[in-house]
Amino acid sequence: MRKYLFGTGIIGAITSGFTLLRGLRGSDEPFTWRTALAWLSWGITLALAIGAIVDTFRAGHGHVIGNDSPVADKQAKLLAKRLRR
Fold first, then answer.
1. Number of other residues whose CB lies within 10 A of the CB of residue 72
2. Calpha distance 78→18 (Å, rounded)
3. What are the contacts of 12-16 at 24+ separation with CB within 8 A?
4. Given this model, what pLDDT does residue 10 score?
5. Mean of per-residue pLDDT scores for the chain
6. Are 46 and 28 in contact (CB under 8 A)?
7. In the structure, what pLDDT confidence band is assigned to residue 45 with cuts at 50, 70 and 90?
8. CA torsion, points 71, 59, 66, 7, in degrees to nearest 10?
9. I need a labelling partner for 5 at 20 to 30 A (CA). Which of 45, 48, 50, 83 fits?
10. What pLDDT does 1 receive?
């Protein structure tokens, strides 16, 4: 569980989300298109980090994952590690 929750993608997405939230709460400026793009970018980053976690989990449990996944090259290695346990 630790390898999923403490990955650099999730930690980066969480810290950038806190930064965006702090900037939104502390300013008297209106919500602009730049702020909307920053939140959209954060959402995409979070979705990609969660997708990588899901792919790692599925590959480790023997499920087939897509070739566009960042874990696709390591799929055989993760499956062999799972079978050794």
1. 14
2. 33
3. 12/45, 12/49, 13/42, 13/45, 13/46, 13/49, 16/42, 16/45
4. 87
5. 81
6. no
7. very high
8. -40
9. 83
10. 57
CB 50 within 8 A of CB 32: no
pTM: 0.73
- Ranges of H-type helices in the chain: 2-5, 8-25, 33-60, 75-84
- E strand or H helix at 27: none
Residue 83 neighbours by CB under 8 Å, 6+ apart: none
Q: For residue 16, which amino acid is it?
A: S
Contact 55, 65 (CB under 8 A): yes
